[in-house]
C-alpha cells in the first residue's frame, strides 16, 4: 500500500491499461490495430507521466510487455488481471481473466497490486451474480496468499448486449443507488479488497459544480459522503473517460467526502493521445496540458483528501480483530 501511495498517504495513480479505445485510435490512424504502435503509445505515456504518479497501472497485453521498463522504479506498479472482453448474455456480464494471467504471475513480475475490473449490477441474473461473486472471492484469496494489494474496480453497465455500450444510462435516477449497492456488497470482508476504485454515482456529463450552492450539488455531495461512510478502507475515483472539467468536479466531491486519491487515465492523457501519430505533438501536449492537470488534481487531493492510513482497516482495527487483544503490541512479523 505504501508503494502505491505517495509520502502523504494519497494515491495519485495513473492508468495506461486502456485497450479498446487505444486499439481503435491506432486502427483508424495507422490502418490496423498494430501491436507495436499501441506499445509505443503506452511507452510514451509511461515515460512522461510515471515521474508524477505514485503508481502506474499497466495492462498485460501491451503496456507491460512493451514498456514496463519505462516505469520510474520509485513508483508503485499495478497490473490488470481481467481481459476487457466479457461473456455477455441476457442476464448480464461475466468478467473473464486475461488468458494465461494470474495473481501469482503478477506478483512474480514484481508488481505491488492487482487490479480487477468487474462488470457488476445488483439486479443481474442470479447465475451471473454467482459467477462475479466467486471470481472476486477467488482473486481476494489469491492476493492474500501472495501478499499483494487487491484493487477492485466495479462498473455498473447497461443490459442489452454490446449495442448498449459500457456506461450505465438506462435510468439516471437509479444510478446512485446502484453504485451504492455495489459498494455495500463488496465491502464485505470475505472479498478481501484493499482499495476500491469507484465510478461516480452521478454521470460525469451531468455533474454540477460542487461550489455552485445548488440543491443538486448538495445531493451529489451526499451520495459521495454515503460511499465513504460505508467503507472502512480507502477508495479512489476512476475517470472512465470523463473530460478534464467534469472529472475535476467528481474529484472535488470525492475528496471532500474522504476519498484517498484517484486512479485515472484518459481524463489526463486522452486529448494528447489524439495527436497520434505525430509523436512530437503527442509528447508536447502531455507535458503542456496533461501534467498541469495532474498538478491541479493533486492540489485538490492534498487540500481535501484523506490519507489511506486513517481508514479503520489500516489503523489497527483489522489486526486487533484478527489477532485478538494486544495483537499489535505482540506482533513481531
TrEMBL record:
SMART domains: DeoC. Keywords: Lyase. The keyword S-adenosyl-L-methionine does not apply. Pfam families: DeoC. Belongs to the aldolase LacD family. This is Tagatose 1,6-diphosphate aldolase. The lineage of its organism: Bacteria, Pseudomonadati, Pseudomonadota, Alphaproteobacteria, Acetobacterales.
Amino acid at each position: 500500500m505504501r508503494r502505491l501511495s505517495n509520502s502523504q498517504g494519497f494515491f495519485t495513480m495513473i492508468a495506461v491499461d486502456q485497450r479498446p479505445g487505444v486499439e481503435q485510435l491506432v486502427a483508424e490512424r495507422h490502418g490496423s490495430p498494430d501491436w507495436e504502435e499501441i506499445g509505443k503509445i503506452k511507452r510514451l505515456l509511461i515515460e512522461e507521466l510515471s515521474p508524477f504518479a505514485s503508481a502506474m497501472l499497466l495492462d498485460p497485453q501491451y503496456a507491460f510487455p512493451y514498456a514496463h521498463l519505462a516505469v520510474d522504479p520509485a513508483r508503485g506498479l499495478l497490473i490488470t488481471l481481467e481481459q476487457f472482453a466479457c461473456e455477455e448474455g441476457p442476464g448480464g456480464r461475466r468478467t473473464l481473466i486475461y488468458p494465461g494471467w494470474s495473481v501469482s504471475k503478477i506478483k512474480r513480475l514484481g508488481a505491488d497490486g492487482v487490479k480487477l475490473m468487474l462488470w457488476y449490477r445488483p439486479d443481474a441474473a442470479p447465475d451471473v451474480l454467482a459467477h462475479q461473486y466467486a471470481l472476486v472471492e477467488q482473486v481476494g484469496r489469491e492476493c492474500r496468499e501472495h501478499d499483494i494489494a487487491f484493487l477492485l474496480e466495479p462498473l455498473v453497465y447497461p443490459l442489452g448486449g454490446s449495442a448498449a455500450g459500457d456506461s450505465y444510462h438506462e435510468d439516471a435516477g437509479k444510478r446512485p443507488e446502484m453504485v451504492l449497492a455495489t459498494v455495500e456488497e463488496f465491502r464485505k470482508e470475505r472479498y478481501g479488497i484493499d482499495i476500491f476504485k469507484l465510478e461516480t454515482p452521478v454521470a460525469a456529463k451531468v455533474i454540477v459544480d460542487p461550489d455552485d450552492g445548488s440543491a443538486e450539488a448538495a445531493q451529489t455531495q451526499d451520495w459521495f459522503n454515503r460511499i465513504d461512510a460505508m467503507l472502512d478502507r480507502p477508495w479512489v475515483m476512476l475517470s472512465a473517460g470523463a473530460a478534464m472539467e467534469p472529472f475535476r468536479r467528481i474529484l472535488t466531491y470525492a475528496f471532500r467526502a474522504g476519498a484517498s486519491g484517484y486512479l485515472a487515465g484518459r481524463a489526463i492523457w486522452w486529448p494528447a493521445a489524439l495527436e497520434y501519430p505525430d509523436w512530437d505533438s503527442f509528447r508536447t501536449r502531455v507535458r503542456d496540458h496533461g501534467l498541469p492537470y495532474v498538478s491541479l488534481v493533486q492540489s485538490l487531493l492534498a487540500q481535501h483528501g484523506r490519507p489511506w492510513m486513517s481508514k479503520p482497516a489500516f489503523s489497527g482495527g483489522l489486526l486487533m480483530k484478527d489477532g485478538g487483544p494486544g495483537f499489535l503490541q505482540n506482533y513481531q512479523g
